[in-house]
Amino acid sequence: MALIELVGVSKIYGVGGVEVHALRSVDLAVGGGEYVAIMGQSGSGKSTLMHILGCLDVPSSGAYHLDGADVGTMDEIDLADVRNRRIGFVFQQFHLLGRLPAWRNVELPLMYMGIRSRQRRRERAEKALEAVGLADRSAHRPTELSGGQQQRVAIARALVTDPAIILADEPTGNLASDQAEEILTIFEGMHSEGRTVVLITHEPDVGGRARRLVRIRDGRIISDEPAASGVGSAG
Amino acid sequence: MTWGQTLRSAFESIVERRMRSALTVLGILIGIAAVILTVGLGEGAQGRVNSAIASLGTNMLIVTPGSASTGGVQGGLGSASTLTLADAQALASPVDCPDVAEVAPVTQHSFTLTAGSQNWTAPVTGTTPAYLSVRDRQVTSGQSITETDVRTEARVALVGTEVAQSLFGTSSPVGRTMQIGNVPFSIVGELNAAGASASTNQDNVVLVPITTAQAELFSQAGPYAGSLSAILLSAHSSTTMSLAYQEADSLLLQLHHVTNPLQADFTITPQTSLLSTASTISKTLTILLAGVAAIALLVGGIGVMNIMLVSVSERVKEIGLRKALGATPATILRQFLAEATALGLLGGVLGVGLGLAGALGIPHVIAGAAVTVSVPAIAGSVLVAAVIGLVFGVYPASRAARLSPIEALRSE
Q1: What residue spans define the domains of chain B?
Q2: Tell me, what's the pLDDT at B338?
């Protein structure tokens, strides 16, 4: 069975009495260890799809099975646990807490996980920062870091609970190309470690790095095929 | 997240938003301190008025010459001689006035007192030993004047503490001699310190036997000085006050041959009426001050409410992020609860501290001001501040915690 399975998922936003169909009956299955890019123009519904995959939003209709469990039947506490342990989320705007140093940002999920020892949380946070190449920046606040470094802190935060799935919403959208390259290299690494990586982008360059490319337009999946790089050797 | 982590996080968040936290605390602090001080001032004033009146003598009726109903017309010279020692003796009769406990005729005139080279002016009161129990005064050193002194027109006197200090400094006045006018009196005792009320200084007094006063002193002072300025009566208890009043009233009407009570040439004033008037006034004052304080608390509360609302709505995004990272709504709520409680407690403790410091300090700065520390005022104001802080700190947070993480993250 697929790790992620969407069946007939729709999402309708009501804006001032006008219904906006962000997703129209989407079926999607992602197996464990896949590296999938979801591509589409702005307004295509790709972000909505990502939020539903990340359990940050709920579908208006349809079913979402995560590792065999029906997300639709979960309560707030179950959902919080899924977000905490199963999924690591990377946002376009990083969403770091500016008043906390890097390692304190990274340890946040561990606090919600219930790890009481500050020492252990710090060790794990430092390890995650090391994995993204920021071992020497752990005491810096986000404002003292470059955009690429901030995004790497956010990735460390997504990785720190060792989730099976990494979801990234336009992770390179706010970055210069050299910094974007660093980020994509990290995603490659996560994929080779066996994690399931799903990222959203509107840039063909970024989408081309994945092994599978899902195109979405007007809330519908229009194509789903192996990416160019997935056929032969990467790069 | 454990409570320890929650408290730590609350503390960090408060320190991080120093200015905002300080303003919140200030709003609570001022509201609470204002309530404590204004209610305390009101109750303090009330307490002082009551004790000042009580110190004039409890269960006391004052018979004064002249009619209250006819006012200035009859209240002049013509009515000044209507009360006599014979009236006082009649009122003391247990047959005619069984509910009158003690009777003290009073005649008063101001004299210059001399002892050695010291001069002092004080009202000299001629009266009987009953005066002390009617007015609730005690002799603290030496002895009282006696009935024998009254009978024999003895030249003996009791002095108040202020008179004693003015004439003899710190040494005891008992056994010394002073001149009242130019008549030498020997001082047999000193009265307890009773303080000053609004109209009379009860420590600047000299008491002498009424007979001596009439024979030796007031005969020189003027044609009407020998008559009584008042007769003080005491009832056995506050419940028999009105009986004593009626007995004294009908006896005096009869003795003065007055048939229409409206034309009475004397007035009887119960001390309690003065007491109740005064406490009504000071209660009104307390209510007024408490109203001002309530408004202060309300204004402070609205300030706290605004800061809390802004603070929470500013952090909806943070709430969304924390939820995306695995925080449950309960965890979020607990964090804001801890923050609001910490701010409320800090403001409350500082406010109570400032209020109490003011209560102790104000009487030193403003002479005559008394501040009573009112426990209900403290408890009430702290409770109101805590409720405001919690409601406006936690309610918006709980709403934000129920949003889906992405809605919260998108909010600006």
Answers
A1: 3-52+277-410, 81-264
A2: 84
* Burial (CB count <10 Å: 0-12, 13-18, 19+), residue A74: middle
Q: Compare all CA atoms of chain B with the CA of A86 and give the residue at the minimum distance.
A: B326
Which of the residues B17, B406, B412 would you substitute to probe the A interface, choosing the one with the greatest number of A C-beta atoms within 10 Å? Answer: B406
Q: pTM above 0.80? A: no
Do residues A201 and A40 make contact, with C-beta atoms less than 8 angstroms apart? no
- In angstroms, the separation between the Cα of residue A192 and the nearest Cα of chain B is 24
Task: At A23, give phi and psi (nearest 5°).
Answer: -130, 135
Q: Is B342 left (phi over 0), alpha (psi -120 to 50) or beta?
A: alpha
Cβ contact A57–B328 (<8 Å): no
- Res B74: pLDDT: 42
Note whether B329 contacts A157, CB cutoff 8 Å. Answer: no
Q: What is the per-residue DSSP string for B63-79?
A: EEES-TTTGGGTSSGGG
- pLDDT bracket for residue B68 (50, 70, 90): very low
Partnered with residue A26 across adjacent β-strands are A9
**A-B C-beta contacts closer than 8 Å:** 62
> B325–A109: do the CB atoms touch at under 8 Å?
yes
Residue A226 zone, left/alpha/beta (φ > 0; ψ -120 to 50; rest): beta
Under DSSP, the state recorded for B145 is -
Which uninterrupted H or E stretch holds B28?
A: helix B18-54
Cβ proximity of B168 and B176 under 8 Å:
yes
- Asked if the Cβ–Cβ distance from B409 to A56 is below 8 Å, we say yes
Backbone region of residue B268 per phi and psi (left: phi > 0; alpha: psi in -120 to 50; beta: other values): beta
Beta bridge partners of residue A23, listed in sequence order: A11
What the block records as the tokens of B341 is: 């409680």
Sort out which chain B residues have CB atoms less than 8 A from A114's CB and list them: 1-2
ipTM confidence: 0.91
Which residues, other chains included, contact B28 with Cβ-Cβ below 8 Å and sequence gap of 6+?
B300, B304, B343, B344, B346, B347, B348, B350, B351, B385, B388, B389
Query: For residue B185, what are its two tokens?
Result: 């009196």
Instruction: Name residues whose C-beta falls within 8 Å of residue B201's C-beta, 6 or more positions apart in sequence.
Output: B162
3-class secondary structure, A36 = strand
Between A35 and B244, name the one with better pLDDT. A35
Q: What is the spatial order of strands in the sheet that A196-201 belongs to?
A: A87-90, A165-169, A196-201, A35-39, A212-217, A220-226
